[in-house]
Amino acid sequence: MNAKTEMMDCQPEINTQRHVYQVDTLSANNNVPAVADRRSVIKKPPKKKWKCTDYMRKTIPSIDWLFLNYRWSQDFAEDTMAGIAVAVLNIPQGMAYSILGNVEPTVGLYMAVFPVLVYALLGTSRHISLGVLSVLCLMTGKVVTTYATEGAENDPTLGGYTAIQVATAVTLVAGLVQLLMYVFRLGLLCTVLSETLVSGFTASVAVIVLTSQLKELLGVDVARRHGMMQVPNTFFDFFDRFHTINWATTTVSVITVTILLVYGKYLKERINSRLCMPLPIELIVTVIATALFQVTTIAQDYNMVQMGEIKSGLPPFEVPPVKLFSAVFVDACVIALVAYSITMSLALLVSEKLKYPLDTNQELLAQGLGNVVGSFFSCLPSGASPSRSASQQTVGGKTQMASIVSAAIIVVVLLWIGVVFEPLPRCVLSSIIVVALKGLLMQVLNFPEIWRKSKTDGTVWMVTYVTVIMLDIDSGLLIGVVVSLLIVFIKGILNEVHVLGRLPDTDLYVRLDLYAVAVEIPDVKIVRYAGSLNVINRYMFKRKLIEVTRDYDDAASATTLTVTVIDGKNPIGVQRPARCVVLDMAALQYADAAGVKMLSESIESLVSDGYDVYLAAVPDSSLEYIRCNNDVKSVRFFPTVHDAVVYHQCSNKKNQDSTYDTQPSKTSILP
């Protein structure tokens, strides 16, 4: 008890005695220039003269960190270890996620080389690992299925486009869109995809990926569904054709998934804490499975689907078919925006953690050019992988040299080692995909917490999640964006009007409905307005203002306020002051011409009813606009609510007592 009393006795206090200010007086006393003169007063920093070398170093960041300032003796060893760690993750993930894109397994390995090298030279993030990303591969796979001619790879006489031609056309258009965004400096465009929306979107895409892999996981003979109602139709087909299940494939899938889950839950942290780099469990499982099915005939005996022929070597240079550009343009734009948003979210997360700057516009150049270059070498649209980026950072990678090392290792795999994985059953790679999606699938458990914190965020999350699953990826994402922007628009036009009261013995004015101890000052109605004041919500503002002042009219005629001014030794009492409305505008976000006109009409109505009307704490951005467009000249502007209240009390006293001393005085407002 004594400690508590002592702590209360030591509470900091504020004791201030000053003049009561109006905005004009405050500005004049402190030499604040008029709005029209402020531009000439503000001193702009001298523009730096950029040289050609400066532009080169800004556009190609690797000139600085790699060619001029790289610390070979300190960072190369750690970057090499990080590069090895990323490479061993890239091998199984690259082959697995290529399945989602409906292209050959080696395409995922190509993506670990060409876009990665371009980003390493042009990107500003030191730790993200570009390459295959399940969401982008799935979205590209949908386009491939729509426009590719089945069997065109093996029989050119069929005409049409091969799967890789469609995929590279999408990649090239997506890269060009990102480069256009870079030219017009549209890096902030990705903000339309909020974190909540991206969370709901990625969680729903994980469900679609899981559904698409049921065929590979269980060996069920069903056709792959695409378009509207893909997930419900796939489950219907799955149960209808369940009798075709391949039990050998199912057994291998269950064993693989069990090993990966048990390792991740019980062994991963214990083992990795004793190693210099994370144990590549996915690669180990892939190698063991490959060796097992290489020396046995299990796959042939039970009709298991294997990887088949894997091309060795690097892909040839090939220009994507230009005629496809118009057909895939819309899908490519969506993929470009999603790729940039997800990659930037991950890059910002890492950069904030490690405290180094990012250039959001430069990231568009790096990713866009990476996709353009990759499209000529059989690559799908690339994005940053959370798992590989986390591995690159936790192992100790310092720069994008780790990505260069990783790309070099993948080149070796493509040239000499890739063909080793031909006997590998596809169900093993599907199992790796499903286990990698565990975190995304479990995001649905976060929904109650999102809903509890914010009903609007919860609405955006659930609408996006449900529509992506029930309709398709593009339609669901579009609906999610529209709902998100609609909520932002609605919040922008909604406003709040609250009556304030004063906390006893302070100059603090708070909401009466929240603070039970706050008291309303008789004959002074203090109204706080929060929100914008525009052509859409102006009548809402007027109606709410009338509501909070209506009950004031009848009570005010019988109210008596006593103001005691301590002036030397003589206390002075006053009876029946004029009524007053103080509008606290501190939370005003924006006011347009129609809103200011309605404000003027409301003030004029209050003045005609006998009120003194004061505007307090009007933001500087709206102050001059309101003053220039306000037709009621009798309204006064004050920097704080307390200034307005004290001014009103003193004005009433001055009007009723001609001996009022105009020097600053200590004023007590006694309700």
From TrEMBL:
Matching InterPro entries: SLC26A/SulP_dom (IPR011547), SLC26A/SulP_fam (IPR001902), STAS_dom (IPR002645), STAS_dom_sf (IPR036513)
Main location: membrane
PROSITE patterns per record: STAS
Keyword set includes Transmembrane helix: yes
Transmembrane segments: 81-100, 106-123, 130-149, 161-184, 196-214, 245-263, 275-295, 324-350, 401-421, 427-447, 459-490
Keyword vocabulary terms for this entry: Membrane, Transmembrane, Transmembrane helix
Domain of life of the source: Eukaryota
GO CC, one annotated term: membrane
PANTHER family: SULFATE TRANSPORTER
Protein known as: STAS domain-containing protein
Species for this entry: Aphis gossypii
